[in-house]
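Incident review: delayed structure delivery

Summary: a single-chain prediction request sat in the queue longer than the usual turnaround. Root cause was a stuck worker, restarted by the on-call engineer. No data loss occurred. The affected request and its eventual output are reproduced below so the record is complete for anyone auditing the incident later.

Affected input:
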Amino acid sequence: MGRLSARHCVGALVPDERSLAVGRLNPSRAARGHNREEETVISSNPNCEAVMDMLRRQYNERDLSAVDQYIAEDHGDHNPMPGQGQGRAAVRQVIGDVLESAETINVEIHDCFGEGDMVATRYTVTVTPKEKFFGVDARGKTLSMHIVGVDRLQDLQIIESWGESNMLAVLQAHAESVA
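Output delivered after worker restart:
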């Protein structure tokens, strides 16, 4: 089993005037006592559209050709998983392994905005594994990983990625709940 690509990063890019803000209530924040409306920011720039298309196709449609289309051959991942190599082939392997281990998988994009060649995306990947997932027996359980990624694009291809997710905390919490 491969590892989920660490193309997710905490970044601070300021949305430009082309961004669209749509208010919606965030149920998980409301449950913690935060009742404000959460704003979703989706930029109308071509780089954001490319990143969102890739995420939707690779997860929701299980289409690995999205990796081939949107990840540069010499892609550099600044936060790779242990053992993960560099380049398009390494990203394709990781995403392929995740898809293979998933009974169901879905991505929900919360925010995507960018300026110039940089894009920041905040999204959730929800997966129900059909086998061990990163060494944790989570078969039949629904796991939701919150991810923030920053990508640098050239000619609508991702050439560099930085990322952070709560995957380790989700897996640790699940492992503790079944122990």
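Verification: The helical segments are 27-31, 46-60, 65-70, 88-101, 167-178.
Action items: add queue-age alerting; document worker restart procedure.
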